[in-house]
Amino acid sequence: xxxxxxxxxxxxxxxxxxxxxxxxxxxxxxxxxxxxxxxxxxxxxxxxxxxxxxxxxxxxxxxxxxxxxxxxxxxxxxxxxxxxxxxxxxxxxxxxxxxxxxxxxxxxxxxxxxxxxxxxxxxxxxxxxxxxxxxxxxxxxxxxxxxxxxxxxxxxxxxxxxxxxxxxxxxxxx
Length: 174
Hints:
The protein is mainly beta.
């Protein structure tokens, strides 16, 4: 059985016509199905997914209905977490710092939270409501100095690194 593209009917082939391609069904087309790549490929993919899962579990934990995006940046003197939290009230954001982790959590409730009632009928509800809790492993020891700023829906938490935790350069002798 053959099929051609263009204006010809399926199963009809008129040979070489400009702009048409003939494909014989059941014959290889040069595209290798995923399953034919073999067990080593599958094993590598499963290992990659497992590594990503365990690295996530060690470095970051989150829970809740919302997962705000965040950056963790290190400078010479501080660790800075920048997190997108639009629609959250600054006084409702809870930040807890432990020895080597920081947890940022909050809750956002909107009227009805996307549920229809006698006064509101939602045709579309995309803005999430609910809570979030994000915990990050801190790569360095920090001091007791910290500050948090909320501006235009972005939370910036600055943690001063401990004097003991500053990295230092070690020269390799030859």
